């Protein structure tokens, strides 16, 4: 079984959003969910993601949420099967 992957990602600095497409609902509409994360580098130089945000991340997070909101509306307007 393969690991699910987001259909799109949007990033502003070290804060990113992953857009997930869920199965079609009973009404035939495609549903989208979003997860947010902040990238950071460990002392060993390895990149990690956390779901915790500090004071300096909050404005970036709100701007990113606005961009993702717009992107989901764009995805909803695409014809089925269009991967643009």
Kindly state the mean pLDDT as a whole number?
Answer: 90
Strand fraction: 25-35%
Structural class: alpha+beta
Spell the H/E element sequence. EEEEH
What is the terminal separation in angstroms? 26 Å
Round the Cα radius of gyration to an integer and report it: 15 Å
What does this entry look like structurally?
The protein has 84 residues and is an alpha+beta fold. The chain has 1 helix and 4 strands, in the order ββββα. The chain has a 4-stranded antiparallel sheet with strand order 1-2-3-4, with helices on one face. Strand 3 and strand 4 form a beta hairpin. It is globular and about 45 Å long.
Question: Secondary-structure blueprint of this entry?
Answer:
Blueprint: E1 8-12, E2 15-22, E3 31-41, E4 47-50, H1 55-77
Antiparallel strand pairs: 1-2, 2-3, 3-4
List keywords for this structure.
84 residues; alpha+beta; 4-stranded antiparallel sheet; globular
What is the compact description of this entry?
The chain has 84 residues and is of the alpha+beta class.
